[in-house]
Design brief:
It contains seven helices and 39 strands. The chain is mainly beta. The longest helix has 8 residues. The protein is globular and about 85 Å long.
């Protein structure tokens, strides 16, 4: 952080204002709100490909891990519901990346951390531009930029659980007679056999998956062209693809089995597998009318398909309520039952479409009195859709654990439906600067038209519905630059904003679900002393949420009854400090250190009623704590850099939290999804050696103390965090 310098954007880099929401670590100081920028060093040097491990370093972020690899993140910003990161606006290069941000925002797809150049996080009043989910904040993944000169990069690593990773790209920018042309070709690959072990029975398992791992492949192409013209213009195109095949399950373990072996996986989950494909593309045009006025227009389209074939019930009993509680069902899962039993699997086959066009106009002006205005006006026309074509498969398992028969239902016979949303969004803001003061008011208007069909739209007898409505959100922030002199910078800021999260069309129309709204307030200060290699930040926040949306994905019976959970209040304190004593004292060795802490008090302000007794929110009373939001999260780390050697150690501590809103550890119906998540301390380490200016060797260690801990009791039973894991590799930058 001490080496970051302010760099004036030249014409060819102005487009980054649209691609990014912060731009660099240096730019964080100019934001009147809570923001973080994690660059290449935070991702590549620590050899991290799990968004949970990256975001641990950011205050105000609460995380519920699920699979140990970060494939399906559950991210909460400032205490909002974390389920599938559905209350966070997730973007890549400024483009919405949730499968269907309005119709079905749950993050069954999330951009891959390991191929990114940076990750940006905005919380609070500073993110009025980014929606539709504006209560908590926004996360923007920045993909690899097209290099300004010829470059070849490759990083390969190998490790435990047969882990193999490779990230390779090459590109160049060339001067042509007609203008400037640049390109980037990238490929990312990751595979492993998983750290969980399936039960073994005497039966030869020719009909099951061989391991609990996954394979992911991601090619990408980027192109840009800057024509020679009177006005500076830039046209950029990006085409990316992701294929994931994971032997992942919703099934966890009972309390007693987790205590005996947390990395066990029941035999009954051997058929569980998710296959996904995602296509993403955009074309972006930038034109600079004057040095003070520019327009960026982006057309984008994403298609995501997934089929998660996963165990849903045993002997006809839903896993949420009885699968890990009834002795007969548990024996079936273990393959130890005395007679025959049935395993019912649901093929959750769904296709998502998301596309649109957005334009942002930026204009700077200075009034006669010396007041500076940075005006931004934007509009987006967006459409998304989710299409379910699901079916069941019933396996009859004999006393030896073998399969006697399989009954396959008709495609589209289970919860077949279509949801779609048209959304028109307009936002405007003005950063008004006078002397040391900067006031930034902003507003966002969402006009949403959603509809659903219980089946194929247009078929006779299919139940349909349609609703359109408008929402106005926004707020303002105020920043005062106390001083900025001799490398020292002290700012004080505050802000207030109204947030919003839309309900899915079917829930809104069928269940009368209201959109979730919020009112958030924050006040904070930042101090940095570049000469002393020190920086710090303290922020207090308070958010009041009305009509909390509880998605069925965190419910139990799969009844589809998404509900409004009443009122919720979150308040807390975010602390962050960075210091390098080696730089400060002029030592031969550098010692970068950091500490971040978040205190969050997230409570229900009203009793929550739910007709789904298995929902983890069922039984919540006024004053109870929200599930999966620990009161204290603490991260700290220390690095050593000496000549060609570097070493880092990172630690994360969380206090205990509840897995259910009733806060009883049992819930209305006793099952394995309720209880506590114990406190834990997890430590990682990394070691690197810069062999030459082109080649770097490295090794990384995850969970170096081999801590055995529960990360979640959802979806169905206790799930472990990653055990000790070691990787090593080579990085070439030519």
């Amino acid at each position: 952080f001490a080496a970051d310098e302010a760099v004036e954007l030249n014409a060819s880099e102005i487009i980054m204002r649209e691609v990014s929401i912060i731009g660099s670590k240096y730019n964080v100081k100019d934001i009147a709100g809570s923001a973080a920028y994690l660059g290449i060093q935070d991702i590549r040097e620590h050899n991290v490909d799990d968004i949970n491990r990256v975001l641990r370093r950011v205050p105000g972020v609460n995380l519920r891990e699920e699979d140990g690899y970060g494939l399906f993140p559950n991210i909460s910003l400032r205490g909002v519901d974390s389920a599938r990161a559905s209350k966070v606006t997730v973007m890549e290069d400024g483009i919405l990346m949730a499968p269907a941000p309005y119709s079905a925002p749950s993050a069954y797809y999330s951009p891959t951390t390991g191929r990114m150049a940076a990750i940006e996080i905005l919380k609070g009043s500073s993110q009025v531009k980014y929606g539709p989910h504006t209560t908590g904040g926004a996360i923007n993944y920045l993909s690899t930029r097209i290099p300004s000169s010829e470059k070849v990069y490759s990083k390969s690593s190998f490790g435990m659980f047969n882990e193999i990773r490779n990230h390779t790209y090459f590109g160049n920018t060339e001067q042509l007679a007609s203008g400037k042309f640049g390109y980037l070709i990238e490929y990312y690959k990751r595979s492993n056999t998983g750290f969980k072990e399936l039960d073994v029975t005497p039966v030869t398992r020719n009909d099951s998956e061989a391991d609990t791992g996954f394979s992911k492949s991601e090619p990408m192409v980027k192109l840009f062209f800057e024509p020679k013209s009177n006005l500076y213009q830039r046209i950029e195109a990006k085409f990316g693809y992701t294929n994931l095949d994971a032997n992942e399950t919703y099934l966890g373990l009972s309390r007693s089995d987790f205590s005996a072996d947390p990395y066990r996986r029941y035999y009954g989950s051997r058929f569980d597998e998710i296959e996904t494909t995602q296509f993403r593309q955009h074309i972006r045009h930038f034109i600079e009318f004057t040095p003070k006025t520019s327009l960026v227009t982006t057309a984008y389209g994403n298609t995501f398909n997934r089929n998660w074939q996963k165990l849903a019930s045993v002997n006809g009993n839903n896993l949420s309520s009885s699968g890990l509680t009834l002795a007969a069902d548990l024996a079936c899962l273990k393959g130890t039952q005395t007679g025959t039993c049935t395993l019912e699997l649901r093929n959750n086959n769904r296709t998502y479409y998301s596309y649109g066009i957005q334009s942002t106009l930026n204009h700077e002006l200075v009034s006669a009195g010396g007041t500076k205005h940075e005006i931004e006006v934007g509009i987006r026309q967006h459409y998304d859709q989710v299409r379910r074509v699901q079916w069941d498969e019933t396996f009859t398992q004999n006393a030896n654990g073998g399969i006697d028969s399989v009954a396959v239902g008709a495609r589209g016979s289970e919860s077949n439906r279509t949801q779609q949303t048209h959304a028109t969004t307009v936002h405007a803001s003005d950063a008004i600067s006078k002397g040391k003061w900067t006031f930034t008011p902003g507003a966002r208007v969402e006009y949403i038209d959603g509809n659903y069909c219980n089946g194929d739209c247009g078929d006779a007898g299919v139940v349909t519905g349609d609703r359109d409505y408008a929402v106005v959100v926004g707020g303002g922030s105020l920043k005062y630059d106390v001083y900025e002199k001799d490398g020292r910078d002290l700012d004080i800021f505050t802000g207030i904003h109204r947030g919003f999260s839309p309900a899915a069309p079917r829930s809104s129309l069928r269940d009368g679900l209201r959109e979730e709204t919020s009112l958030g307030f924050e006040v904070g200060t930042r101090y940095a002393n570049a000469k002393r290699a020190f920086a710090s930040e303290v922020i207090f926040f308070h958010t009041y949420i009305d009509d909390l949306i509880i998605n069925d994905s965190v419910g139990g019976t799969g009844s589809g009854n998404t509900i409004n959970g009443g009122e919720v209040r979150t308040l807390g304190l975010e602390l962050q400090a960075n210091y390098d004593r080696g730089l400060d004292k002029g030592w031969a060795i550098q010692t970068p250190a950091y500490i971040t802490a978040t205190y969050t008090r997230a409570t229900f302000e009203t009793d929550t009623s739910s007709d789904d007794a298995e929902s983890i929110f069922a039984g919540a009373k006024k004053g109870n704590l929200l599930p999966y939001i620990p009161e204290l999260t603490l991260s700290f780390g220390l690095g050593l850099i000496f000549q060609k050697w570097s070493a880092n150690i990172d630690a994360n501590y969380q206090t205990e939290s509840f897995a259910d809103g009733a806060n009883t550890g049992a819930g209305p119906n006793v099952n394995q999804r309720f209880g506590k998540i114990d406190s834990r301390l997890v430590m990682d380490a990394a070691l690197g050696y810069q062999w030459s200016n082109k080649v770097r060797m490295f090794t990384s260690f995850k969970n170096i103390t081999s801590e055995e801990y529960i990360v979640s009791r959802q979806p169905h039973g206790a799930r472990p965090g990653m055990p000790f894991n070691m990787m090593a590799g080579l990085e070439f930058d030519l």
